Amino acid sequence: MSDARAAAGPRMVTKAAPDRRVDGEANEEAARSEPAVGLVVTGIGTVGADGFDFRTALGRHGYKYLPAASQYFLAAAKGALAQAGPDALEAVGPEERGAAVGTNSAALALHHAMDRTVTATGAGDLSPVTAPYFSINLFGSRLATEHDLKGFNLTFTSPRVAGLEALQNGQRAIATGRARWLLAGATEEALPEGEPGADTSEAGAVALVLEPEAAARSRGAAALGRVGVRAFFLPPRVAASAEGAERAAVLLRDALDALGHRPDQPLAVTAVLDGSPVGEAVAAALEEQVLEGQALAEQAPGGRTAAGKPERIPAGAGALEPVARVAAALGAPAGHLHAVVTAAAEGNIAVCLVTPSGAGAEASSR
Description:
By secondary structure, the protein is an alpha/beta fold. It contains 12 helices and 12 strands. The protein has helices at 28-31, 54-57, 68-84, 108-120, 141-147, 162-175, 213-218, 236-239, 244-258, 277-299, 320-330, 360-363, and strands spanning 21-22, 25-26, 39-48, 97-102, 152-156, 181-188, 204-212, 225-233, 268-273, 311-314, 338-343, 348-356. It is globular.
């Protein structure tokens, strides 16, 4: 999965950024580029855990024994499909539909419960209904079965960036011809009490429907915008060094360049970061890039508006918040280019460039 990349943007991006290495470790995610796929987002579904009732959201029968994270994602997908339109699925055949979901904590509570059963009375007392979900890959299986998604069904678990990786790699799979239609997002279940990060754990789901622009237009569906993602790695020991912010800045510039963003273009930034050395290095790099963007904007013909200060969101335990921020940027009333950046203490970093439909002309003026 570390070599998977997806691109979505207003035009073809064929220029590859130079290969970068951090103390001998290649960061190919930010250094390589692929042709953009003409996918647009046509549906967004969001579900929160507070007050969630699967009977109301999904139906009274057939969902009772599903893990909560599966229920959340099914409900979010239902909302995204409803917004995409009644013929969103029928526009392509089952073999051309793919799904990708990211999660960090969907299975943890269930795994704890299984461990308690095994140690207390034995594996024979595990529920045959929930036991298959020991595998994290099965949390999206009901989605694929319910909506006949036979192209591919992918699950990602990288710390904090898993949801954005689902968008990235789902689009890459479509770029390589494995499908033509994608449902992607993230889902989380609250961590059990006493687990590290339980006080800031996430619970809920976000799902996005992506399809070819021409297909959406032909069936009269509204395009909400485009998303493109690059994920890469910054070793924590490098992030904590004196060169940490500079290294992070290089990687962020490479990622944005690969996604088709020009440095002097106005860009709103939302950063979902923790206080780890990696998070702080990324925060410092973003501040530096804002200053560079302001200087370039002042020099640009026509007096472009400079980017504002990045909005920093305290990161919780999970991969849901970054995808929720992407969904919010797509649905913002005043559409403009928006970057959602997130990083984990382990070194995983991802950048999502969001181009809402109202920002298409500006983004394509390269």
